[in-house]
Specification:
Elements: H1 4-21, H2 27-44, H3 48-70, H4 85-109, H5 115-133, H6 139-156, H7 160-183
Helix pairs in contact: 1-2, 1-7, 2-3, 3-5, 4-5, 5-6, 6-7
């Protein structure tokens, strides 16, 4: 039977991503409430890299909230855009290095039973969240990959409501990818 924290995390997480799909600024404070909930839940189940990820999410949510309001042209609202190829390569490298580093730390200093997957999900999520703060459309496929891995890992850890949430995230991520692509300026439209 899921606990109230897992249910609250489900509701706030789904609402947060729903707001992100619509590029609504209120996703950031709702996301912070979700992060606090999952920080405690993941600690209790030994997903330590995911605990650290929630701390990062809180910090970057403050930045994202500000950047969406003031990071655009003339310090106005930020519009959706595409990531540059050189930046994309740097982000792929960041995922690889972060995964390796976190795997080493989890194997050496914790009792994690899933250090590689926990680390990979964390690395993908760090990069996707950073991309989200910049409103880069390509954040959505990165989230989709992280969520696919997360569903299996959460089922393995008996977090069934949380795994259902990540399935809901998948649907929302596909919707977000479609909507954000449509929101690109005409000269940046995807074929």
């Amino acid at each position: 039977m899921p606990g109230w924290m897992e249910v609250f995390g489900f509701v706030t997480g789904a609402a947060c991503v729903g707001l992100l799909v619509r590029q609504n600024i209120w996703n950031w404070p709702l996301g912070i409430a979700n992060n606090l909930t999952f920080m405690v839940l993941f600690y209790r189940t030994g997903l330590y890299a995911d605990v650290g990820l929630q701390v990062f999410y809180i910090a970057i949510s403050v930045y994202g909230w500000w950047h969406w309001l003031h990071g655009g042209r003339d310090h106005g609202a930020l519009a959706a855009s595409r990531v540059r190829p050189a930046t994309a390569l740097l982000l792929v490298g960041t995922v690889a290095v972060t995964t390796a580093l976190l795997t080493f730390i989890l194997r050496r200093y914790t009792n994690s039973t899933v250090p590689v997957l926990d680390s990979l999900i964390t690395a993908l999520s760090l990069v996707a969240q950073f991309m989200m703060t910049r409103k880069w459309v390509e954040n959505w496929p990165v989230w989709i990959l992280a969520n696919c891995i997360s569903v299996g890992l959460l089922i393995y850890k008996d977090l069934y409501v949380a795994s259902l949430l990540y399935l809901v995230y998948q649907v929302l991520c596909v919707m977000g990818w479609k909507e954000w692509r449509a929101a690109l300026r005409p000269n940046e439209a995807v074929a």
